[in-house]
Amino acid sequence: MAKTMQERLDEKAEKKYYRTHKKKLDVSPGNVTFHLLNYLFFGVFTLLCIFPFYYLFINTISDNDFVRKGQITLIPRGININNYLAMANVNDLGNAFLVSLARTLLGTALMVAASALVGYLVTKQEMWHRKFWYRFLVITMYFNAGTIPWYLNMSMLGLTNNFLAYIIPGIVAPYNIILVKTYIESIPSELEESALIDGAGFFTVFRKIIWPLCKPILATIAIFGSVGHWNAFTDSLILMQNAPELFTLQHRLYIYLNTTSNLGSLMSTGGSAAAAAAQAAMSTKVLKYTISMVTVIPILVVYPFMNRYFEKGIMLGAVKG
User: Fewer CB in a 10 Å sphere around the end CB: N or C, the chain?
Assistant: First the structure.
């Protein structure tokens, strides 16, 4: 059966499309070799980054006797979740987890809000002494008085043994403000000008235009802030000496890792002296692994959901200085 005119035209267009795109595809030996080496390198690099977390995880779900003997390498043996269930018996670990969680959520939310608002304000020519305040903000990134003056300052402000010591100092983050400012400057100014012509004020523009458009960079600095708050323990170590109920999870982990001789007794079940010693040695190692995994899991869970914003935000926010 003879082909219709439309079928012949479609076939011709398809062949033309194939020839055009075939020319664009570079299949030269050098290009193929480059891509193979590129994928191989980054594949190996990815595995090297993932393996420490994987090794930590398989040791926490394996039989404790195999872990103590160092017989866990690539595959877990004697699967059990008792190590995670036993975390409930570790003193103050639950409270430390709640403190870290509250600190991370509240501190990150306030930091993101402040960075977005200040980053927007320093882009406005109408801001009073805008250049002075922006330069003053940047200067703080290069000068640090040191730990002792910092502690004395926090003490005079009444922030020792106080939960607010985790929140207030981190609200203003100069680096994050710079990222947000740079990102806002990449937004077409016509959007803001049209809103101002319609009678909107600066804060209305910020709330209804700038804030929604800044989601990628805000997600980026939210990752920075949440990881920083979750992993911090120095301020807890120095400022909360008389308030153990305010110790963060990382601070508790630090204490446990530096008192390894007593860790086994937290999970010891009694018995003969030899059995107790073996149980203590076993529990010490397993407890280290398990607590470390518990502190890492929240960030590993949250990051994939923010990753799609992270790349776009950090690239656009770093285009201009």
Answer: N
Q: pLDDT-based confidence at 156, cuts 50/70/90? A: very high
Q: Are 124 and 130 in contact (CB under 8 A)?
A: yes
Task: Find where tokens 């200085």 sit.
Answer: 321
pLDDT at 269 (0 to 100):
44
Please report how the helices 174-185 and 130-139 are oriented relative to each other, as an axis angle in degrees rounded to 10: 130
Share of the chain above pLDDT 90, in %: 19
Show the tokens assigned to 133.
Answer: 């305040």
Are the C-beta atoms of 92 and 252 separated by less than 8 Å?
yes
> What are the extents of the domains in the chain?
85-316
Q: What global pTM score does this model have?
A: 0.72
CA distance 264 to 280: 4
Q: Scanning the structure block, which residue is given the tokens 């320093």?
A: 122
Alpha carbon 78 to chain centroid, angstroms = 32
Local structure of 48: helix, strand or coil: helix
pLDDT-derived band of residue 166, with 50, 70 and 90 as boundaries? very high
Cα 289 from Cα 64, distance rounded (Å): 11
Segment (H or E) for 205: helix 202-205
Q: Is the pLDDT of residue 203 over 80?
A: yes
CATH architecture of 85-316: Orthogonal Bundle (1.10)
Alpha-carbon gap, residue 102 to 107, rounded angstroms: 8
HSE, CB side, 13 Å, CA atoms: give it for residue 17: 6
Among 32-46, 109-123, 239-253, 307-321, whose mean pLDDT is lowest? 307-321
From residue 146, alpha-carbon distances to 143, 152, 217, 277 in Å are: 9, 10, 30, 43
Amino acid type, 8 = R
Rounded Cα gap, residues 48 and 40, in angstroms? 12
